[in-house]
């Protein structure tokens, strides 16, 4: 059984993330969306809130589950029988960092990384951009699912 992980902060999840997750789910028996518990990074949503939102977004994908982890990603992969990390590549600006991480993770543990080209519609999209737009009352409904849009409106209050 081939198991992959789509890791990230997902604060919050966007249509860009979901596009990668859906496409990855067509190539693996199981895909785990792993939400990083990052105590050093301030977040808009708590990890349990993010997990709940993501579960709602992927409820129609039977081979996708949601989890959280802290520490090294490759340790999470080893403990959960995951052979492959799948990440989206939006633009060349993502490339240096992702290549470094992929090479490090391969050398450290043998876990493979597959970098999937983001659909052009989402190449500009990031959770940070969504949060900034929402903070100033911008319309982010084309960038995030409806349940996430509702949650972000309640959280930032369109300020
Ligand atoms: O959504 P993000 O914030 O861009 O996700 C980044 C993430 C979580 C994928 C990245 O920070 C990560 O893989 N962290 C795991 C920690 C790790 O294994 N680091 C290895 C290099 S020191």
From TrEMBL:
Its EC number is 2.7.7.3. Keywords: ATP-binding, Coenzyme A biosynthesis, Cytoplasm, Magnesium, Nucleotide-binding, Nucleotidyltransferase, Transferase. SUPFAM superfamilies: Nucleotidylyl transferase. Residues 5-132 form the Cytidyltransferase-like domain. One of its GO terms (biological process) is coenzyme A biosynthetic process. Coiled coil: none annotated. InterPro entries: Cyt_trans-like (IPR004821), PPAT (IPR001980), Rossmann-like_a/b/a_fold (IPR014729). PANTHER family: PHOSPHOPANTETHEINE ADENYLYLTRANSFERASE. HAMAP family: PPAT_bact. This is Phosphopantetheine adenylyltransferase. It comes from freshwater metagenome.
């Amino acid at each position: 059984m081939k198991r992959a992980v789509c890791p990230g902060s997902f604060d919050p999840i966007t249509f860009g993330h979901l596009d990668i997750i859906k496409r990855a789910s067509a190539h693996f028996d199981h895909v785990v969306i792993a939400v990083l518990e990052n105590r050093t990074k301030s977040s808009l949503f708590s990890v349990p809130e993010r997990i709940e939102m993501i579960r709602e977004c992927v409820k129609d994908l039977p081979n996708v589950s949601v989890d959280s982890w802290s520490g090294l990603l490759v340790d999470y992969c080893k403990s959960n029988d995951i052979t492959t990390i799948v990440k989206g590549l939006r633009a060349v600006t993502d490339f240096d960092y992702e290549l470094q991480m992929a090479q490090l993770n391969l050398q450290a543990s043998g876990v493979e990384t597959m970098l999937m080209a983001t659909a052009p519609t989402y190449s500009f999209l990031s959770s940070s951009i969504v949060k900034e737009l929402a903070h100033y009352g911008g319309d982010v409904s084309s960038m995030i699912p409806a349940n996430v849009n509702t949650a972000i409106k309640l959280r930032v209050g369109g300020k």
